[in-house]
Design brief:
Radius of gyration: 24 Å
Helix content: 55-70%
Order of helices and strands: EEEHHHHH
Strand content: 15-25%
Number of strands: 3
Mean pLDDT: 86
Oligomer: single chain
Distance between the termini: 44 Å
Shape: rod-shaped
Strand order of the largest sheet: 1-2-3
Length: 132
């Protein structure tokens, strides 16, 4: 393992940083580590957001990843999307007249309406939160 001292200037400020390298064949590769990120179980909205960022906004994705902020960003997106989905679904169900009484009287009609509403709400959430 080799150690090389580098002078890095940032807006006129000189600092000394120490980088260590490992020889792999004929190449010296820097020993770099990403910041530690907490273990979080990501839901489907967070996974959709990660995939969207990775495919369409690579710079933002890698900036969040290297700063150690990706997991926090994805957790916030998941929370915001889930809350929005629940709120809009309740509002739309109330507007369409989908009630617990309907559920008791005609279960199949209630299921069809709720599935339709849920699908519409998920598309709204994707457009407003995930792909924004």
């Amino acid at each position: 393992m080799n150690t090389i001292r580098l002078k890095i200037t940032t807006k006129g400020v000189w600092t000394m940083n120490e980088l260590t390298y490992t020889m792999v064949g004929d190449y010296s590769l820097p020993n770099l580590k990403l910041p530690q990120q907490p273990e979080v179980t990501l839901g489907r909205y967070a996974q959709m957001r990660r995939k969207f960022l990775k495919e369409h906004h690579r710079v933002l994705y890698y900036n969040l990843l290297t700063r150690g902020e990706l997991t926090q960003h994805l957790a916030e997106v998941e929370q915001r999307a889930s809350k929005m989905e629940e709120t809009i679904l309740n509002q739309m169900a109330q507007k369409e007249g989908v009630t617990e009484q309907m559920k008791a009287e005609d279960m199949m009609k209630w299921v069809c309406l709720m599935n339709s509403l849920r699908s519409s709400v998920q598309e709204i959430v994707k457009a407003e939160v995930i792909f924004a």
